[in-house]
Amino acid sequence: MIRREEPIPALSAGMSYVVMTGLLLSFALPPLAQMPSPGGSPGAPAPGREALARPSPSVSPAPAAQSPAAASPSAVPASGGAGAVAPSSPSEPSTPAEVTPIKEEWPAEDVARAREQCMHLLSSTPADVEWMEPVKKGSCGLPAPIRLKSVGSDPKIVFDPPVQVNCRMAAALGTWAKSSLQPEAKQRFSSQVVRIVGASGYSCRNIYNLPNARLSQHALANAIDIGGFGLANGRVVGVLKGWGLTERDIKAQAKAKAVAAAKSKAERAKAGGKDVQTAVPEAAASKEARAAKTTVAAKADLAEKAGKNVTRASLSPPAAGTSKATASPVAETAKEAAPAKPTKEALFLRAIHSGACGPFGTVLGPEANDPHRNHFHLDLIPRRNRGYCE
After folding, report:
1. What's the pTM?
2. On the CB side of 281, how many CA atoms lie within 13 Å of its CA?
3. What are the backbone dihedrals phi and psi of residue 280, each rounded to the nearest 5 degrees, phi first?
4. Which residue blocks in the chain are alpha helix, DSSP H?
5. How many Cβ atoms are within 10 Å of 1's Cβ, its own excluded?
6. Per-residue pLDDT at 205
7. What is the 3-state secondary structure (H, E, C) of 67-124?
8. In angstroms, rounded to a whole number, what is the distance separating the alpha carbons of residues 314 and 211?
9. pLDDT tens digits, residue range 278-328?
10. Which residues contact 227 (CB under 8 A, 6 or more apart)?
């Protein structure tokens, strides 16, 4: 008789609990996508449930290798410290591109034509010249400049130092030397001019070096400034010292003396007990100054009407036969300011200044303004009528 054994109730209950737990876990956990490869690191533990459940972080792919010049400044490692320098951006060149300036030049045919004309101009003028390279700088320059060393003959007039001018200027200087310089030097000093001192020619600039003024004739080598003249007997006549007082100098001195005389008279009147509380001294000084100005201007007008185109204010000696009783204090003051007798230098310089008004378009000297007090300016600017001479 086969004995039938009854199952143990506790064991059946335990098995049912295990089966139910397994079913629940199979639904709760996601399936494994991958299993560790057999070739993994030896001894590496298999991923547990926490490792499988945690999402893996995203990893950017490693950048491709770049040259130092192409690397971005942000790619500089932080360990470089303050001394690290970020490489330049690929869009910026490492060295600036050099700009080659365009050289300004005269066409060869212009240079040849200008030199041919120059030789024609100087064919009848004794002159020692040297060809220079063409000059072109914006509006300045000329195709055939020369270095002028001397003009004339028997004797030569040497330029000390040589001056850079154009050929028209050299020809005009030769004419002036023959018609005015040498005759006047013989008459005044019984000698001849052998040197022109302190001359200057070409200079790329505007008139008086003012930025908004028009271009100077010096910028075209069409002008010359002369500071003095050396004679064969060793005498040097400088424009600054030789010219003497200008018209504006005499006016200024007369005005100053008139004001001083009026002031002195007022002080004497005040010391004598007279009532000087009014503005009489100032009015008297102003009246005397106007009278002085009128007197000098009238003398200049009379000189021009007599055909003298050079100011003679500083050359006029006191009028003969004028008594102190009839002469006004202002007239006496003006006479004191002017020299009693003009010097040879003053007469010579005024004569050659006047003689230059024919060959040249512009002649400026000490009477023109203070910038020309120490030299003559001569240029060949074209003018419709007679040249400008002052």
Report:
1. 0.59
2. 16
3. -60, -45
4. 9-28, 49-53, 108-121, 167-176, 182-189, 239-242, 247-271, 280-305, 329-337, 344-355
5. 3
6. 95
7. CHHHCCHHHCCHHHCCCCCCCCCCCCCCCCCCCCCCCCCCCHHHHHHHHHHHHHHHHH
8. 35
9. 555 555 556 665 665 555 455 445 444 433 433 343 444 433 443 333 344
10. 197, 198, 199, 238, 239, 240, 374, 375
CA-wise closest residue to 202 among 129, 111, 141, 151 = 141
Contact 115, 145 (CB under 8 A): no
Measured in whole angstroms, the distance separating CA 110 from the mean position of its chain's CA atoms is 29
Cα gap 365→353, rounded to integer Å: 8
Counting every residue written for the chain, the total comes to 390
Phi, psi (degrees; rounded to nearest 5) at 31? -70, 150
Tokens of 309: 């185109």
Q: 133: which 2 tokens?
A: 């390279």
